[in-house]
């Protein structure tokens, strides 16, 4: 029954299960009598033993710890630089890791979603105590995916420090995945990146002349277009300026009843231009 709930423990012999107030502890050892060195040589000569503690995903609101009795073997390959090696269990252990692959994957996803402090609070609520620095280390250890072929590239700037320090982000517009970041907003860096990706056919960018020149030099075969955000932003700015320029002409006329013969002619009020207002335009995502 235990192995049905924890199938990745099938290579172990569970010797004891202890429930503590805050965790469940599995004490186990490896079933196999031999282990394979990194050079590919199998060995049955045990050099020593030690206890390795692995943290696993919580079960029933309690943390799970696997206390594994690990053997260290002597490598029988005379040309192998490793004199001894510790046994590893596929799907359960990795060198120097204190988490099972399942636990490591869960913490990595929490770190990617919430980063340090918020991720640590969520993990604690799930029965796993972990520090914010550990979550950030797991996020930094995630390998960068292969860029692959990009046909439609998005180029835009972002602020490291608004008004002072800016950078550039490149995005695959088909998958909406960030591809590359670099410091500054110069076109030379964009051109250098585009030279390594001749498959780019369309470049979505803002009206920056630097980006335009970099796209022209680095990808002369690509068509440059304005993306939807900058089109809507430019339209909103144009409408806002036009409305503010003619707002004084939008004053309501005097009521017809006040213009009758029984009312003395009053001096028309001086129409004061209203304060400049911002127009917010919302577009569907």
Protein architecture, described:
The protein is an alpha/beta fold and 285 residues long. 26% of the residues lie in helices and 29% in strands. Strands 1, 2, 5, 6 and 7 form a five-stranded mixed beta sheet that branches. Strands 10-9-8-11-12 form a five-stranded mixed beta sheet. α2 (101-114) crosses α3 and α2 packs across α4.
Broad shape: elongated
Strand-residue fraction? 25-35%
Work out the helicity level.
Answer: 25-40%
Nearest-angstrom radius of gyration?
A: 33 Å
Strand-pairing-aware structural class: alpha/beta
Tally of individual helices: 7
End-to-end separation: 49 Å
Sketch the topology as an H/E string, one letter per element. Answer: HEEEEEEEHHHEEEHEHEH
Unreliable parts: none
**Mind summarizing the main beta sheet?**
5 strands, mixed
What's the total count of β strands? 12
- Mean pLDDT, rounded to whole units? 84
Which structural traits does this protein have?
alpha/beta; 12 strands; 285 residues; five-stranded mixed β-sheet; single chain; 7 helices; elongated
Short description:
The protein has 285 residues and is α/β, with parallel strands linked by helices.
Task: Indicate the topology.
Layout: H1 2-5, E1 12-19, E2 23-30, E3 35-36, E4 42-43, E5 46-59, E6 62-74, E7 84-86, H2 101-114, H3 117-125, H4 132-140, E8 152-161, E9 165-172, E10 177-183, H5 187-195, E11 202-205, H6 209-218, E12 223-226, H7 228-245
Parallel strand pairs: 2-6, 8-11, 11-12
Antiparallel strand pairs: 1-2, 3-4, 5-6, 6-7, 8-9, 9-10
Helix pairs in contact: 2-3, 2-4, 5-6
């Amino acid at each position: 029954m235990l192995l049905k709930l924890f199938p990745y423990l099938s290579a172990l012999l569970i010797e004891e299960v202890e429930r503590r107030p805050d965790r469940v502890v599995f004490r186990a050892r490896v079933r196999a009598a031999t282990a394979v060195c990194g050079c590919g040589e199998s060995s049955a000569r045990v050099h020593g033993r030690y206890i390795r503690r692995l943290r696993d995903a919580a079960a029933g609101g309690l943390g799970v710890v696997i206390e594994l009795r690990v053997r260290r073997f002597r490598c029988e390959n005379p040309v192998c630089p490793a004199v001894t090696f510790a046994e590893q269990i596929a799907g359960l252990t990795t060198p120097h890791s204190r988490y099972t692959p399942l636990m490591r994957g869960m913490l990595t996803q929490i770190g990617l979603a919430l980063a340090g402090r918020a991720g640590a609070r969520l993990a604690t609520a799930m029965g796993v105590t972990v520090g914010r620095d550990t979550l950030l280390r797991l996020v930094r250890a995630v390998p960068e995916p292969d860029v692959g072929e990009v046909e439609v590239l998005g180029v835009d700037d972002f602020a490291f420090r608004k008004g002072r320090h800016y950078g550039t982000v490149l995005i695959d517009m088909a998958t909406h995945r960030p591809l590359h970041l670099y410091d500054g907003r110069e076109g030379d860096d964009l051109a250098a990146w585009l030279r390594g990706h001749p498959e780019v056919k369309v470049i979505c960018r803002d009206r920056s002349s630097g980006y335009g020149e970099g796209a022209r030099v680095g990808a002369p075969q690509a068509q440059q277009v304005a993306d939807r955000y900058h089109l809507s932003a430019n339209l909103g700015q144009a409408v806002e300026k036009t409305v503010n320029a003619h707002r004084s002409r939008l004053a309501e006329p005097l009521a017809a009843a006040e213009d009758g013969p029984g009312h003395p002619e009053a001096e028309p009020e001086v129409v004061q231009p209203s304060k400049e207002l911002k127009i917010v335009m919302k577009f569907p995502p």
